[in-house]
Each structure stands twice: as structure tokens, then as C-alpha cells.
Amino acid sequence: MGPMDEKNIAQPFMQLVIQNQQMAMISLGKVKSPVSDTPDKNLEYAKLSIDTLDMLVQKTKGNLSEYQEKLLAETVNQLKIFYVEESGRETNMEQKLNNEKQSKE
To answer: How far out from the chain centre does Cα 65 lie?
Structure first.
């Protein structure tokens, strides 16, 4: 097996981006888990997938086609927005539960 050329690298790279995006979306509860067929929110796992994609942005800078660079950047930005939204919802729920608990005491 010889060195991979641009064409042979593009497909596995895009697959890596899409896999991490899907894992993040499942972990954010935006997409049903293929295993349980229900939303399966886990913000820690979502952050790991987002951080992996963010690392790819940094490590591949200047080595991607314009299309690949744009897709990767837009994917990371979209996932970060979703993460902030879901983190805020979780924080709001925790605060609401704490307030309810305190009012009962």
C-alpha cells in the first residue's frame, strides 16, 4: 500500500468528521441513539467529540481543500452552539430542582 494521495485521503477524512458529528449529536440528545432508539444525552461524550473535531481544525490548518475546511469549521461551530444550548438547559434544570428542594425544606 503506497502513500495516500489527496483523493484517497478526502473520503476517510470526511468520514471521520461525520462520525464525530453524529456521536456529538447523539450525545447532545439531538438524534436518537441507534442502539436504544431514544435520545441518549451525555454532555461529557458530546464535548469529547466536539473537542476532537476542534483539534482536527487546528492540526489540519492549511492542509485541507476549501470544501473540507468549510465543512469542518461549520460542523464544529454548529456543535458548539448546540452544546452551549444543552449545557444551559441542564444548568437551568439543576437550578430549578435545587429551588424546589429548598422551598420544600
So the answer is: 22
